[in-house]
Amino acid sequence: MNWAFLQSLLSGVNRYSTAFGRIWLSVVFLFRVMVFVVAAEKVWGDEQKDFKCNTAQPGCHNVCYDHFFPVSHVRLWALQLIFVTCPSLLVVMHVAYREERERKHRLKYGEGCKRLYQNTGKKRGGLWWTYVLTLVFKMGVDGTFVYLLYHIYEGYHFPSLVKCSQAPCPNVVDCFISRPTEKRIFTIFMVVTSLACILLSFCEIVYLVGKRCRECITKIHHSRQMVKAASLVSVKNPNALLESNTMKLVNKDQPAPSYSVAIS
């Protein structure tokens, strides 16, 4: 699988991410994608060939392997990485949509017209919701795959010896997993990095929501200060408003001057 292509697609996400988002992207590519490409595929590359059972019964080896490894770890992690990284492209697509809309607006009303967006990459309005929803989706994906990995394999432990009694095995046979300790270490490593990514996404959501709440509170406080200042001015000089309104009424009721033209 060409992970470099996926990395090139997501390279633009850094421009629109917060500090937590940049750390998340670094963790994904350094500790998940790179480890997956360099080490994990080689560790699980010979899992079926080196899965040995002490029986010569035809089909017993395949049935036992399918029972203990219903889904390959490598394919499961590849699917997880695809699902967890591709939603970030929605942010880039949303920014591209804003830029295209801004370009059409300038072509229609001229370069000196009022801009639709002060900054197309600023997380406001619909882009803020898109960004937050992608974070929630990524947290859900990572959490789901961590649970699936635990549920399918009944934990993250790889014993050296497993007992298999599936048909068509004649009796309970002993099967041996190749390099169980190494596989257990890499499995725990991938699970821990997934949990770290969930924590980073959660921190980013808290940061974005807290920042938005702070901006709303500041805006409400500023508006209240303006109203309070206006009320203080009216209390200190109550006749100012009355005089201004009286002048407006006098000017409104005063008839227009008449002019006469003498014809000699």
UniProtKB/TrEMBL annotation:
Regions crossing the membrane: 21-40, 77-97, 128-153, 185-209
Keyword Transmembrane assigned: yes
UniProt cross-references to InterPro entries, sorted A to Z: Connexin (IPR000500), Connexin_CCC (IPR019570), Connexin_CS (IPR017990), Connexin_N (IPR013092), Connexin_N_sf (IPR038359)
Gene Ontology BP terms: cell-cell signaling
Keyword Transmembrane helix tagged: yes
Origin superkingdom: Eukaryota
Molecular function GO terms recorded: gap junction channel activity
Sequence ranges assigned to domain Connexin cysteine-rich in this UniProt record: 141-208
Bilayer disposition of the protein: Multi-pass membrane protein
The family this protein is said to belong to: Belongs to the connexin family.
Function, in words: One gap junction consists of a cluster of closely packed pairs of transmembrane channels, the connexons, through which materials of low MW diffuse from one cell to a neighboring cell.
Assembly description: A connexon is composed of a hexamer of connexins.
Name of protein: Gap junction protein
